[in-house]
Each structure stands twice: as structure tokens, then as C-alpha cells.
């Protein structure tokens, strides 16, 4: 992968990494608030492992909300580590974000495809309901793919900055870059 030199054609990868970490924290906090403010059964959580009755019992005990909240707290921690790593120029502190970013991108792609395909394949009672569900599935698919592209770009900016810091640590901060043919 070729390293990126700038973030959005105007800022450094350092600035882009800090912005990425800050956005991760802001979006995680907003999601935690949204998960706990919406009515319990407004958003449906299913496991696809257990039967429907057990899923309902889990949802009644707020287990899915608690798991999502714990995951988002870890995201806040990792994004905070990213910001600290960029400010202190420590590549090893950036590793959790770099590694987790790839895993989250794969999970996001699977989630987008699963959700949109589920809406495409639902049984419909009326033609109007069918049209609304197909419209929703298409919006989820297109919006999700656009979000995935934005996420991958932000990850590429952080990864480029990680490689720059790692190279700087191995050759020394104030030495000239080695001659390249």
C-alpha cells in the first residue's frame, strides 16, 4: 500500500490521525447515548444463534445494550490511545487502532451486507410495505458502503502516520532519510 502524505489534500497525516481519534470518541459517545435513549424494542437485537424467545429474554435484560456499550467504551479507549500516541510520537501505542481498524472494517462490511440482504428478503404484506423495505435496504447498502469507504480512508491516514513514526523511531528522529534508488 502506498503511504498517504496528506489528509484531505490539505492537512498532515498527523492532523488526520488526531481528527480520526477525536471523531471515533465523539461517535462512540453519541452511539452510547442513542442506544440507551431509544425505546427498548425500537431497535431489535438478534443473535441468530439462539431461538427467538431467548433473544427476547436477552433483550429484556438489556444484555445487547450492555455488550454494545462495553465495545464502544473500548473504542473510546483505543481512540484515546491513538491521540496520545500521535502527540507523543509512539508507534506501539497506535498498534491497537491499526489492528482493530482492519477487523472493524471487515465486521462493518459483513454487517452492511447482512442488514441490507435481510431487508431485501423480508416477507411483505402489502406492495407499499415492500417498496418501503426495498428503499430502506438500498439506503442501508449505499450509505453503509459510503461510510465504509470513509472509514477505510481514515484508517489509511492513521496507518500511513503509523508507518512514518515507526520509520522515524528506527532511524532516529533528526537524521536524514536514507538514500533511495
Strand order of the largest sheet: 1-2
> Which structural class should the secondary elements be placed in?
mainly alpha
Mean pLDDT: 85
Number of strands: 2
**What amount of the residues lies in strands?**
under 5%
Largest sheet properties? 2 strands, antiparallel
- Rg over CA atoms, rounded to whole Å, is 21 Å
Count up the domains.
1
Q: Classify the helix fraction into a percent range.
A: over 70%
Give start-end ranges of low-pLDDT stretches: none
Sum up the overall morphology in one term: elongated
SS summary, helix count: 5
H/E element sequence: EEHHHHH
How many angstroms separate the termini?
19 Å
Please outline what is shown here.
The chain has 181 residues and is an all-alpha fold. It has five helices and two strands, in the order E-E-H-H-H-H-H. A hairpin with a 3-residue loop joins strand 1 and strand 2.
